[in-house]
Every structure is written in structure tokens, then in C-alpha cells.
Amino acid sequence: MVDRFDQAEALFKPQRVEVLRQLAEPRSCTEVGAALGQSAQRVYYHVQRLRDAGLIDRVDERRVHGISEGIYQAVARSYWLSPRLVGPIGGRGAQDQLSLGYLLNLVEDVQTDLVRLEGRPVGDLSTLGVSGEIRLPPGSRKAFLDDLRSTLQDLFARHGGSEGEVFRLAVACYLKESPDE
């Protein structure tokens, strides 16, 4: 989770993002430069900015022609910008569950929760992801949303005790733009 401005600033340079992608596996500046068609010195400049921001680590070094060459690697497989970097702009506070603001707040909460789980042993995680598209005939949107809400409320009522492991169930339902719009 990128939650500091210096980290975000380091990522907002396209060349640095390319260097970061190359460092998914341990590599030297010379190797990254060869892959990107850049000099090792130019790559080293970007590596130092990424390292200062805590986005990559020096994981090893080797001697090449009597010179010490650093081996670097990204500290994560993906980087998410924290919504807290900017914070809410305007009033997206208490809105009803059918509003876009409510859905955006929910997505931010889920993103934050998932980042906290990152790096935990797989055996500790019980997760489920489901995604799909539903096509509704004209005029049936309200009936579908009412049915969905009722089904979820029934699920919460059947499994919503006060003891045991806490799971978050977040359902996002939104009108998808068609690709030709």
C-alpha cells in the first residue's frame, strides 16, 4: 500500500514504473538497462529514487570486473495507492446504499482490508472472489436490486452471530459502460 507522498511521487514517473516492473525478480541496473534500452547510470538514478521511497530493496551484490554491482528487487508484487493519500474530496459521507458515493467508500474499505492481508500465509486466509455480469431486460432493475438485497439480508441473518471469525462480505453492483460508449 503506497501511503506516503514520496512513494506516490516516485511511482508517477513512467520510466520508474518500467524499472520497477523489471525488478519483479532480482536484477542489476546493467540488466535492467539492457532490457529497457537505457544506460545503467540512468537506471541507477531511478533505482535510487525507488529505493529512497521504500519501493525496492538491495537484495544482493556481486563483483563484476572488480566493481561491486548491486542487485535490486521490488518489495511487493503490486502497489496500490491508498485513498488516504488525498482523503475524501467533497461530501461522500452518509449516503444511501444505492449511491455511487457509498459504493466508492466500500471499495476503499475493501482495498484497505486486502492490503492488510497481503503477505499472510495462504493457510490463514479464507477468501472467495466472484465476478460476473447480469443483463436485465428494460424495467427490471428495481426488482433485481430488491431481490439481491433480500437474498443478502437473508444470508446475513442466517450467518450473522456474535461469536467466531469475522468475515467481510462486500457486494458491488453497478451499471457497466458498454465498450463502445
From TrEMBL:
Gene3D superfamilies on file: Winged helix-like DNA-binding domain superfamily/Winged helix DNA-binding domain (1.10.10.10)
Residues passing through the membrane, by range: none
CDD domains the UniProt entry points to: HTH_ARSR
InterPro entries the UniProt entry points to: ArsR-like_HTH (IPR011991), WH-like_DNA-bd_sf (IPR036388), WH_DNA-bd_sf (IPR036390)
Domain of life: Bacteria
SUPFAM superfamilies listed in its UniProt record: Winged helix' DNA-binding domain
Pfam family, one: HTH_20
Name of this protein: Helix-turn-helix protein
Species this chain originates from: Pseudonocardia cypriaca
Top-level taxonomy: Bacteria, Bacillati, Actinomycetota, Actinomycetes, Pseudonocardiales
